[in-house]
Structures are given as C-alpha cells and as structure tokens.
Amino acid sequence: MKMPVHLNALRAFEASARHQSFSAAAAELNVTPAAVGQLVRALEDWLGTPLFHRASSGRVRLLATEAAEHALPDIRAGFDRLSLGLERLKEGATGGALTVTVSPAFAAKWLLPRIESFHAAWPDMDVRLDTNLRAVDFVAQRIDIGVRYGPGTWPGLVAEKLMDEEVYPVCSPHLLRDASRLQTPNDLAGETLIHDLSMDSHTGFPSWEAWLEKAGIADVSTTRGMKINNSAAVLQAAIDGHGVALARSVMVRDDLAAGRLVRLFTHIRFESALAYYVVYRPGCASLPRLKAFRDWLFDVAAC
Fold first, then answer.
1. Distance separating alpha carbons of residues 226 and 18, to the nearest angstrom
2. 157, 173: one domain
C-alpha cells in the first residue's frame, strides 16, 4: 500500500510551480535544489503522472502541467488553512511573537513612544513590527493584527475603529516669534505650505485644499510648497521651521505636548473622513496574544 504524500513534497511542488524553478523554490524553502527535485519526483511517482513540463526560453524553466495548474489553488488554500490551524493550537499561550502591521509614520509617532507599557504588561511576548504603507496579505505574511488608516473596510478583515482624527495647521514656535505672523488663516498666503502625500490618492485624505475651503479662504495657493510622502517627515519638516504643515491630530499629539509644534487657528474644526482601525482576521479573534494587544491599543487610545 502506498504511503500518503508528505507535506514537504506538496510544499516543494507548490513553490516550484510558483517560481517555475527548483533553484528558486529551494532558496525559499532553505534546502538544496536536488532535495526539491527529489521531493517533486516522489510526488509524481505517488501520483503516477508528471507535474511539470520543461521549457527553454533563454533559460530552462518549469511549466506546470494542466492538471497541476488546476490543483494548485486548492493546495495553496489548504496551506492557508493549515497555518490557521497551527495558530489555533497555540491559542492557549500568550507568549511568543506577535506580528503587527502599521504604517512607518504611525509606528514612529504613536506606537513606538507607547509600546513600553505593553512590554511591561506582557514581558514574555515579543512584538514584531511590519511597517508598510501598502496593504499586506495577513495569511501569506503571517500578520496577527494591524492598525490601518482609512474608511474602515478591508476585505477579509475585521475592522474596529480605534481613533477618529482632526486635521489642523501647525508650525514651529520659532515661526511665531514675530507676533504679527500667522494671526489669521489669510496669513498662510505668505508661508510655505508643507503637504502630506502619504495617502494622497486615497479618497477623503485631508488636504490643504479641503482645510482652506472649510476655513473659507480662497486666496491661498495650494500648488506651491513642500511635498512629502511620509506623515512623520511632514511633522519633522514643520518642527525644523521649514513651513506650516497640515497635521493629523493622532500623529502630532506628542509634538504638541512637548512644545515642538504649535497648533494654529484653533477656532476652525476640521474632522477627517478617515480614521484609525484595528484590523485582524475573523478566525484569529480569540488568540490570547492578539486579544492582549488589541485591548492594550484601545486602553492607550482612550487615555
């Protein structure tokens, strides 16, 4: 009687098909190309049919057979389910590593200045930060939980609102040494505006144009100024006195408290249409380490 196929053989097959190469699959799986080839051949022997054609177009590459191509989606889905099953086996433990995805700016301006209190409460849990502006695949990259900025809807993820956000101009206190400077919003016409382009293509992302419209100001050009695609760098440029930035309240909170920046025109209120959300996969909601970090985020955000 033939033995059931080993999972390592399926992994070797899936990686080889994805990379169209035994060598590239071997690098991913941290084994030798010969070992990958042997595992694939063992799978072919067990099935009694070949899984790859060999094609040459400048270099030899593997092409999966038609039957293999049809099977690959189910095999990949199976690996995803196995990963989730392994997570469930660890549900009884709060130790180990927790992988958290956040934007680089959110990590620098909000999370990292506060993370020590989480380490104090959960000393046996290591936190690994994945800082990325692009949406990540929670399954493929083994992400446990994240904080995302946006409208609150991401396919396949639970999204719980963590913090709303207000938007307002800020500048270095050094710019205000001249008492006549920046007394009204119209005075922005004579200043360098610092623009945050980190999510400029996202509908609803707050812009100088939107803020000035809310303030009823029509004589300030928004085509000029300094343009930066990182929210933390926008605030640093303002701290260094390079101009007036349109700040997001969550990001700028600590800089205002420390006196590095000053909020301007406090009588004008402009609420962002976007907010910060805690996100995670529905099937992982009961993981103790995820729940511990989620609860900590909401406790700290409420302070």
1. 43
2. no
Q: Which structural domain, as residue segments, surrounds residue 192? A: 167-263
Q: Give yes or no: residues 137 and 58 share one domain.
A: no
Radius of gyration of the chain (CA): 26
For residue 117, the domain's CATH number is 3.40.190.10
Q: What is the pTM of this model?
A: 0.69
* 231, 109 Cβ separation under 8 angstroms: yes
Show which of 67, 89, 111 is a domain's final residue.
89
Compute CA 278 distance to the chain's CA centroid, rounded to the nearest angstrom. Answer: 11
For the record, the structure tokens of 36 come out as: 């990958």
Cα–Cα–Cα angle for 185, 189, 190, rounded to 5 degrees: 115
Query: Does residue 106 form part of some domain?
Result: yes
Closest CA to 220 of 169, 271, 171: 169
Q: 245 and 282 share a domain?
A: no
pLDDT in tens, 68-123: 899 889 888 888 778 777 666 654 455 568 899 999 999 999 999 999 999 999 99
* Helix, strand, coil percent values for the chain (each to nearest 5): 40, 20, 35
CA-based max dimension of the chain: 91
Which segments in the chain show pLDDT lower than 50?
1-3, 58, 91-92
